[in-house]
Design goal:
The chain has a 4-stranded antiparallel beta sheet. Strands 5-6-4-7 form a 4-stranded antiparallel beta sheet. Strands 1-2 form a two-stranded antiparallel sheet. The two termini are 51 Å apart. The radius of gyration is 26 Å and the shape is globular. It is built from 16 helices and 10 strands. Helices cover 50% and strands 18% of the residues. The chain has helices spanning 14-24, 29-38, 41-46, 82-94, 120-129, 131-140, 143-147, 178-194, 231-247, 249-269, 274-285, 325-334, 339-362, 366-381, 389-397, 404-424; strands at 58-66, 69-76, 100-101, 108-115, 151-160, 163-171, 198-205, 212-219, 295-300, 303-311. The structure holds 3-hydroxy-3-methylglutaryl-coenzyme A.
């Protein structure tokens, strides 16, 4: 590819970009048709250098009970078995009364970082003496938020030489709020510059410690039993898996990946920024200097008690929320009305996801359930047509060992049988 076709790519229309990509990247007619068929005018308004929309599957998490209410939650993910596992975990918890989600006040943190400081304590004192003025500067930058009773409510100073971070604590009400907080932080930064201070940067922090969401559940082990293990045995093994994720960073990363399987899928379906939630979750998991599992499970008397706390600064308005027809429809399906409700339900889905994964890992192993559901995407990846998938997955499910080569061989065998059958007719 030559360099000059990329120069000014953003100034072209989406149609021109697709034509150019076809030519420069040697797309087949079929590949070009995919770009054409999936393109939307809305997508072109949302991102830069737009060529087409990228589709991901959406399924429904059913039977999730939080604070006594049953939810049906859209999940967007490409990974087989994630939605099945979330539903599985939710159902087991629902049989024991469901999840409890805490309701706590939530704020976002906007950082205004100062440097070139002679006396940190003197600066901290000066900032606290000017708290009222600083909050007014912040709120004047976003008056509509103040009118709704939200806005910048407090300040915090953190000293990390050679820096001092002035943290603006902003109540963003029902919104995702990132842009509003950035506007406020920049206004405060500009004001501090005028007072003669050196401001390095002003930006929202994704470690949303002022928007923590906690969910808990108490599971009756009877609902965890398998054909080989009693409920209490499974509960004890799940608790041990949880202990392992507190001390072994390799296991902690996978434990948390499993939780984020559910959380990301709900966040994406709700139109919120899943990268922000991911970043906050992992930073919070390492808050004491050691990266640990976010969810914990303990046997307490005759119950398995699960708990998950993580930053969950989601909104139900603003940003890209409800800008796509899909995200809009998802709110009709979920009937979620407030940011707090959404945060609790998302965290509950993460804990349900973790329970299902740990139950599988602590009993039959992940491959038994996960791989069976993976067979459909394996079948497609070795070239099966939609019509061939059921026959191929049925054959694969009867085997003790399955991989790409095996799937490919069986597909060839199925095609041969079909052709032989046709010839005989
Ligand atoms: P099962 O126990 O064989 O399911 O689970 P079941 O047939 O007894 O059905 C019980 C319930 O599970 C169903 O209730 C459904 O709610 C749900 P019902 O509707 O019958 O009243 N369920 C399903 N929902 C939708 N589609 C399905 C389906 N099957 C059951 N096909 C299952 C089978 C795969 C769910 C189970 O083995 C499981 O949860 N496995 C864990 C799978 C998983 O975590 N997948 C994520 C990918 S692996 C990963 O990335 C994370 C990991 O590494 C994290 C970690 O290490 O911690 C594992």
């Amino acid at each position: 590819m030559t360099k000059n076709w990329q120069h000014g790519f953003y100034k072209r229309s989406a149609q021109e970009r697709r034509n150019l990509v076809k030519q420069m990247c040697a797309l087949s007619d079929e590949q070009f048709a995919t770009l054409e068929n999936q393109a939307t005018s809305l997508g072109d308004q949302l991102v830069e250098n737009y060529v087409t929309d990228y589709h991901l599957p959406e399924g429904l998490l059913v039977g999730l009970v939080v604070n006594g209410r049953e939810y049906t939650m859209p999940m967007v993910t490409e990974e087989p078995s994630v939605i099945a596992a979330a539903s599985n975990g939710s159902q087991r918890v629902a049989q024991s009364g469901g999840f409890h989600a805490s309701a706590e006040p939530r704020s976002l943190v906007g950082q205004v970082v100062l440097t070139n400081i002679d006396d940190y304590d003197a600066l901290a004192t000066w900032l606290s003496e000017h708290e009222e003025t600083i909050l007014t500067v912040a709120n004047d930058a976003h008056p509509s938020m103040k009118r709704r009773g939200a806005g910048a409510k407090g300040l915090r100073v953190r000293i990390e030489p050679p820096f001092l971070s002035l943290d603006l604590l902003v109540d963003v009400s029902e919104a995702m709020g990132a842009n509003s907080v950035n506007t406020m932080a920049e206004a405060v930064g500009a004001w501090l510059r005028k007072q003669g201070y050196t401001v390095l940067t002003a930006i929202l922090s994704n470690l949303a410690t002022e928007s923590l969401q906690t969910v808990t559940c108490q599971v009756d082990p009877a609902h965890l039993a398998t054909s080989d293990m009693t409920g209490p045995q499974v509960a004890r093994r799940i608790a041990l898996m949880s202990d392992l994720a507190q001390v072994d960073v390799y296991r902690a990363a996978t434990h948390n990946k499993g939780i984020m399987n559910g959380i990301d899928a709900l966040v994406l379906a709700s139109g919120n920024d899943w990268r922000a939630i991911e970043a906050g979750a992992h930073a919070y998991a390492a808050r004491d200097g050691h990266y640990r599992g976010l969810a914990t499970w303990q046997v307490d008397g005759d119950r398995l008690v699960g708990r998950l706390t993580l930053p969950m600064p989601v909104g139900v308005v603003g940003g890209s929320i409800k800008t796509t027809p899909q995200s809009n429809t998802n709110y009709q399906i979920s009937q979620i009305k407030s940011a707090q409700e959404l945060a609790g339900v998302i965290a509950a889905a993460g804990l349900a996801q973790n329970l299902a994964a740990l139950r599988a890992l602590a009993t039959s192993g992940i491959q038994a359930g996960h791989m069976k559901l993976q067979y459909r995407s394996l079948a497609l990846s070795v070239g099966a047509t939609i019509a061939e998938v059921p026959r191929l997955t049925k054959r694969l499910a009867q085997l003790s060992h399955v991989d790409r080569q095996v799937a490919s061989d069986i597909l060839a065998q199925i095609r041969k049988e079909t052709n032989d059958g046709r010839r005989e007719n």
